Amino acid sequence: MDKVIERYAKAYRRGLEARGLDGVDGMVAAYRERLRQMYASDAYREHDVYPSMSVDHVYAVIAMCLELRARGLADQQIIDTVNAGFAARRRFFDVLLRAIDLLPNCYRIAERWNVGDHAKRVADGSITYDSFEVGEGKVEYRISHCMYVEMFEHYGIRGLCKIFCMTDERAYAGLTRHVRFVRHSDLSDGDCCHDEVLDRRLHG
Question: Nearest CA to 56 among 18, 6, 93, 19?
Fold first, then answer.
């Protein structure tokens, strides 16, 4: 796990430096130790059973959130700092999404993503769907249980799972030519994740 911890420590450092915080070396050292302990915990072994999830990544983000909250940062500051740490990774996906957005079958690609992800999540039990409907130019689903949220909840920071909930919104923000994404609610601060993915040709 040492290489994994060091990779995430570098991302954490980037986030801290982007925020202009003092004492970065000490904060990164504290983060390394926290993440090492979290990876060695019974909770990690209990959670690291879902093939469709990168649990080491989820735990790395949770550790960042816990460290930043201990330093007194507000939730939005924490979210911004964590996102800054992964800015290069996000830019790579932004470029990829812009290329996909140019394709005439962009909506069908998004539809296949959702259908495939649904199948994987149901198979490993990481997400519980109350409904998942695929219609003409529309995918709509409601989720009542999500292990991303449960992991954040385990560490007492459920609301900061918004970091992961926001990835869908960011992804679809790069597919605006052909796809419209509507988020009615998410589980980080509500009882249900309810989303619609729409083909703009049929649903505006």
Answer: 6
DSSP 8-class letter at 194: E
Classify residue 102 as exposed, middle or buried by CB count within 10 Å of its CB (0-12, 13-18, 19+).
Answer: exposed
- Structure-block tokens of residue 67: 């460290």
Instruction: Name beta bridge partners: 179.
Output: 199
Which segments of 105-155 are extended strands (E)? 127-135, 138-146
Residue whose token pair is 């999540």: 121
Residue 143 has pLDDT above 90, yes or no: yes
Neighbours of 194 (CB within 10 A): 19
**Three-class secondary structure of residue 74 per DSSP:** coil
pTM of the model: 0.94
101-120: per-residue pLDDT in tens? 999 999 999 999 999 999 99
pLDDT in tens, 8-51: 999 999 999 999 989 999 999 999 999 999 999 999 999 999 99
Do residues 170 and 177 lie in contact, with contact meaning Cβ atoms separated by under 8 Å?
no
Place of tokens 């000490």: 26
196: left (phi over 0), alpha (psi -120 to 50) or beta: beta
